[in-house]
Amino acid sequence: MDSDLKSSRKVVLLKILTQTMQHVARGWYKQFLSDYMPLSDISLEYIIEHNLINVTSSYSFLFPLQFGQAIATGDAEISPDLREFADNLGILFQTGDDIIGLFGDPSVTGKSADGDILQGKKTIPMYMTYMYAPTEDKDWLNIHL
Predict the structure, then answer these.
(1) How far is CA 120 from the centre of its chain?
(2) Cα–Cα distances in angstroms (integers) from residue 61 to residues 6, 53, 121, 138, in the given order
(3) DSSP string of 79-112, one letter each residue
(4) Mind listing the pLDDT tens digit for each residue in 39-78?
(5) Which of 2, 71, 98, 120 is the most exposed place for a label (fewest CB within 10 A)?
(6) Nearest alpha carbon to residue 93 among 50, 44, 53, 51
(7) Domain of 92: which CATH number?
(8) What angle do helix axes 124-132 and 80-103 make, rounded to 10 degrees?
(9) In a domain, 115, yes or no
(10) How many domains does the chain have?
(11) Is residue 1, in this structure, part of any structural domain at all?
């Protein structure tokens, strides 16, 4: 398929695609590492920055915005406000997905209700559960997650 885009815009689009793939690969690796960390060593900021929330924001919201900007103007830079919006939308989307994964009906969602728990995923719902759990429950969570 050929397009009418100038070569310079195609180069910008390729750079965005490459940066996004690198960002996603690093994010998946960081999440894999955090799956083996105890909940007591995790902060909310860590979950947002190093787990899939930041990665989801990148490929679901930021990347398409940058791609559209580059096609329209030849420049991939988006405003700080739009970047913040994409990041917050990513947090909202991923947290909703995590809640559906925990409490949704697997026959409807297509997701296992205990998959994130069995994999030791450090999600915002798991973090909040841990932070507000009584001490004996925190001890159990530290052993099993």
Answers:
(1) 16
(2) 24, 11, 22, 34
(3) -HHHHHHHHHHHHHHHHHHHHHHHHS-HHHHSS-
(4) 888 888 888 776 667 777 778 888 899 989 998 888 888 8
(5) 2
(6) 53
(7) 1.10.600.10
(8) 70
(9) yes
(10) 1
(11) no
Entry pTM: 0.74
Question: Is 2 within a domain?
Answer: no
How far lies 93's CA from each of 30, 35, 37, 50, 90, in Å? 19, 20, 24, 16, 5
Give me the helices (H) in the chain, please. Answer: 7-34, 44-50, 52-57, 63-73, 80-103, 106-109, 115-119, 124-132, 135-144
Which range of residues forms the domain containing residue 78?
A: 7-144
> Residue 142: CB partners within 8 Å, gap ≥ 6?
38, 39, 40
Q: Tell me how far apart the alpha carbons of residues 35 and 121 are, in angstroms, rounded to a whole number.
A: 5
